[in-house]
Protein: TauD/TfdA family dioxygenase
Organism: Mesorhizobium captivum
Amino acid sequence: MNNPSVVDQIIPATDVLPLTARVGAEIRGIRLGANLSDATIASINQLLLKHKVVFFRGQDHLDDSEHELFARRLGDLVPHPTQGPVAGTASILNLDSSRGGGRADQWHTDVTFVDAYPKFSVLRGVVIPAAGGDTIWSNTHAAYESLPAALKLLADNLWAIHSNAYDYAAVRPRASAEERKHFEEVFTSTVYETEHPVVRVHPETGERSLLLGNFVQRFVGLSRSDSAKLYELFQSYVTTPENTVRWRWQAGDVAIWDNRATQHYAVNDYGDQHRIVRRATVDGDVPVSVDGRHSVTHAKTAKPAAKAA
Ligand SMILES: O=C(O)CCC(=O)C(=O)O
Ligand SMILES: [Fe+2]
């Protein structure tokens, strides 16, 4: 269903409200669930490819089970590799601001420390603060397209090492003791190291996008210090406001993003107000570079169990 007019017949254009010209659209008039027609699911998939992130308000009828049954229509579900799913679910990740790991306030693409990282994330607002707690997404295809030709050429030929074991204290100096403990004992209970091309060719659209985010450790063949400078340069094209969209959550909202063509950032500006969002995650495939090479996971090591003090 690549023809937009076919999508129009299933989801009328008047029910698709772009939030910016480059990224994000709200879709109205759909009650998400397992029982949607194949044509509606295909249309949602198509709108995701176009807008990169789509939003549905008023999906308060969803519980974890129905949330997953809907997500399952978009592909196979996959639990987080180290954090595991909420009990009784296949993939639901609970992000609770009052617990370690609940504040995703770094620009990232989900789970890029493994090779076949997720293709879609389906996030549901459960408890939303009265003020703050928005999420921002960037279109990483638009970011690639906005690079000058010389930087595109450089990016096309560059590879990066992604790992879940990064310098947490350097990245999040104000983290609580509980957050640090979660990072050390849960998030990095198995350490992954994966080499990805910096430019990924999208398997469905053929579009090129920048594949970066906070799991990047360094670029292949460059020192950490050169890598950090170059990372900031490329990443500035991802985070430039023109390539982003910001969503003001209400409980019952659902956001779905194409994790192959976006990064996102959960704004940590709500202090000690409570915030809970829950994510169902759809499995992806191994990225391919502009010259047809695939990403590879080099290392996967289980950490020795922490010794009792
Ligand atoms: O808390 C949010 O808004 C986003 C959390 C996140 O990074 C995710 O669900 O992948
Ligand atoms: Fe995320």
